[in-house]
Amino acid sequence: MAILDMNNDEPNQGLRCIVDIAKMFHDDIDFKIFNVRAKNEIPDLSYDIYISSGGPGSPLEDGSWRKPYLDLMQNLWDFNKQHSEEKKYVFLICYSFQVMCDYFQLGEMKPRKSTSFGILPVHKTKDGLKDRLLDGLDDPFYAVDSRNWQLIQPRLKVFKEKGCSILSLEKIRTHVEYERAIMAVRFSEEFVGTQFHPEADPVGMYAHFSEEANRQKVITNFGEAKYNDMMDKMDDEDKIIRTYGIILPKFITEAIHHHLHQLI
Predict the structure, then answer these.
(1) Structure letter (DSSP) for residue 58
(2) What is the CA radius of gyration of the chain?
(3) Residue 42 domain flag
(4) Count of structural domains within the chain
(5) Alpha helix (H) ranges present in the chain?
(6) SS3 per-residue string spanning 122-183
């Protein structure tokens, strides 16, 4: 498995969480981390599973990493189209999801009026209710959301042409007239992505945000009520504990089973 670190060397919890999930499968997979944005490290096509992380900044940024990264994703997409048996599995998180949705021109990628941050409800679409990735999660389910950008105004013709489907939308906001952002997309049988953070580990996050400096940062930016709400939801069995335990582990398990089947 290749883990694509899109954090641009900024401190984050996401990469640690992805690594922790990868280590759960230590009997079945080896993994290597590639520092994409800060060091232009790009894996080749020899890996079976690719997980591309979240990260800071604009998904429209034209850094030196962008073309090699998009070339990799296009090559993985083409590989799957050209091979009926062997497949490459790709999971895109937050920033990576935004970059690829823009690349595939699935809709408008726009800055939000204000940052979305916290443990928030995510609603399944009709396709999401049937999709195996979200099976076992409530509707709505809860996930860690942290973003300044959003995918809106889906180009349904492009979705249909590429065979993509929308799996979930952000919380219903009856008090404002803004469009609801797209929160998860199945690009293909093997490519999937989420705007939210399914890798968010409740134990690690609770420890992280309990530290005074991090606590103050959240309160300064979002208010004490938002901080308290997030901390209260952190250890609820039906919220991010369930999301953490289902989405990425299920994706990795499916990829492993596919490749084991190929070896038989």
Answers:
(1) -
(2) 18
(3) yes
(4) 1
(5) 14-23, 36-39, 66-82, 95-103, 126-130, 156-162, 202-210, 212-222, 224-233, 240-263
(6) EEECHHHHHCHHHCCCCCCEEEEEEEEEEEECCCHHHHHHHCCEEEEEECCCCCCCCCCCEE
Tokens linked to 259:
């490749």
CATH number of the domain residue 56 falls in: 3.40.50.880
CA angle 169, 95, 163 (to 5 degrees): 55
Amino acid identity, position 194: T
Model pTM score? 0.92
pLDDT tens-digit series, residues 38-66: 999 999 999 999 999 999 999 999 999 99
For the chain, give the number of residues.
264
In contact, 248 and 51? CB cutoff 8 Å: yes
Going 172 to 178 to 179 to 181, the CA torsion angle's sign is: negative
Domain-embedded: residue 214: no
Only one residue has tokens 């993985």, namely: 76
Residue range 66-101, pLDDT digits in tens: 999 999 999 999 999 999 899 999 999 999 999 999
CB atoms within 10 A of CB 210: 11
The Cβ of residue 32 has, within 10 Å, a number of other Cβ atoms equal to: 10
Cα separation values, 28 from 18, 24, 137, Å: 16, 9, 25
Query: Is residue 229 assigned to a domain?
Result: no
Place of tokens 């922790």: 20
What per-residue string of b and e applies to 33-47 under the rule 16 or more CB within 10 Å gives b? Answer: bbbbbeeebbbeeeb
8 Å CB contact between 3 and 54: no
